[in-house]
Amino acid sequence: MSDSPAALAALLAEAEHAVVLTGAGISTESGIPDFRSAGGLWETYDPMKVASMGTFMDDPALFWRFHRPRIDMLGAVDPNPAHQAVAELERRGIVKTVITQNIDRLHSRAGSQEVVEVHGSLDRGYCLRCEHTVSMDELCARADAAEDGVPRCDCGFQMKSGVVLFGEQLPMEAIEAAYDAAERADVMLVIGSSLQVTPVSQLPGVVLARGGRLAILTESETDYDHRCTVRIHHKAGPTMQAVLAALKAA
Ligand code: NAD
Fold first, then answer.
1. Ligand 1 test: best mutation among 34, 43, 71, 116, most atoms within 8 Å of CB?
2. Cβ of 120 below 6 Å from ligand 1
3. 1-31+79-119+170-250 has CATH 3.30.70.360 classification
4. pTM of this prediction?
5. What residue spans define the domains of the chain?
6. 103 in ligand 1 pocket by Cβ < 6 Å?
7. Which pLDDT tens digit goes with each residue over 146-180?
8. Is 201's C-beta closer than 6 angstroms to any atom of ligand 1?
9. Could you count the other beta carbons within 10 Å of the beta carbon of residue 249?
């Protein structure tokens, strides 16, 4: 098993259909805390509670007190060198699809075109009752105008963003697209995911079962570490820039 950016560059250069799978760790260098690292969100909040469908339904004011500042925080950050490197690999025809668990839209903002967002994203607001859809700006304006901070639809029901909550069904179309991409991948590169959240945690197994190879660039341990061709435990941004430099040099 290799652990160098040069080895990762060589693996990607050989790939005919590389797929990147990302988690919260790719965005920490943009200033967004992940869930499980020291200083991550689990230490301050219980996301299973505040970001759950149960809280959204039973106590929308509590839900929106957590969610509203996060929308502003996520709007104020920028893609980092790791997102930019992934977009560059797609422009070069090496990476075919990016599957992300993140809801921050930083891959698209960095220029990635083929992005599958398996946990939804901050792309819109909508009403669960009548399905009326509004822009994120409109959703925030409705939240800010409400006394209790809860954006409401014209039909009177509380509205939510496109982010998938705990206890909510994952978007079937995105899950199917993610499995489809994994089934076609001869190389999967995982960046910044603890690979503990299903069903995404099963995708590296799909690639390996079909004879594909796996690279993981994530600081902490994962259950797939012993099955990797390349395993790097460093920061995503500098490592991915070193990978690009190695590809240019080759
Ligand atoms: P996770 O928090 O379980 O794991 C993140 C992993 O990234 C950890 O293993 C950590 O060691 C590693 N990491 C942190 N910073 C890194 C860096 N700079 N370079 C390399 N590795 C780094 O995240 P997960 O696997 O994505 O699962 C958590 C869930 O939380 C996901 O569903 C995700 O949608 C959601 N989430 C999303 C965001 C976001 O959109 N940015 C932020 C927090 C949580």
1. 34
2. no
3. no
4. 0.93
5. 1-31+79-119+170-250, 33-76+122-163
6. yes
7. 999 999 999 999 999 999 999 999 999 999 999 99
8. no
9. 8
